[in-house]
Amino acid sequence: MTSANSLRSVTNYHAGAAAEQSVAHWYSRQGCHIDQMRWRGKGGEIDLIVQDGGELVFVEVKKSQSFYHAAQSLSRRQITRIIVAAGEYLGTQPMGTLTPSRFDVALVDKVGQVEVLKNAFYGD
């Protein structure tokens, strides 16, 4: 039983990493610069931190069978964790919390297509 759980965990890790890489390529094609991948702070992890012009974008990547299921898997608890981690990251920036920023959710379906929901939630 444990080995099956370990195998599933490794498979999920690699699937998540591949989804994050696909999303990073999507942002790069839009002319954005990838600042960080899987940034980890005391408050949690942010999948991608992207520079989009003068705006810092905190991206949560969700992968599932469909865009709908991927979107449904984002919980209120995860949103709170991302906002807390983003606040911590903004504390490292010259303008701090005054840094122009937004939160995107990038959805990846079972065939690897990417759909990005810009400004998906607010840190207020």
Essential attributes:
globular, 5 strands, alpha+beta, 124 residues, five-stranded mixed beta sheet, 35% strand, Trna Endonuclease, Chain: A, domain 1
CATH class: Alpha Beta
Would you identify the regions where 5 or more consecutive residues have pLDDT less than 50?
Answer: none
Q: At the third CATH level, what is the topology name?
A: Trna Endonuclease, Chain: A, domain 1
The geometry reads as: globular
Biggest sheet, open or closed, and with what strands and sense?
A: 5 strands, mixed
End-to-end Cα distance: 43 Å
Relative strand content: 25-35%
- Percent of residues in helices comes to 25-40%
Structure characterization notes:
By secondary structure, this protein is of the alpha+beta class. The protein has three helices and five strands. β2 and β3 form a beta hairpin. The longest helix has 28 residues, at 2-29. The termini are far apart.
Short description:
With 124 residues, this protein is α+β, with helices and mostly antiparallel strands.
Helix/strand layout:
Layout: H1 2-29, E1 33-41, E2 44-52, E3 55-63, H2 67-72, H3 76-90, E4 101-108, E5 114-121
Parallel strand pairs: 3-4
Antiparallel strand pairs: 1-2, 2-3, 4-5
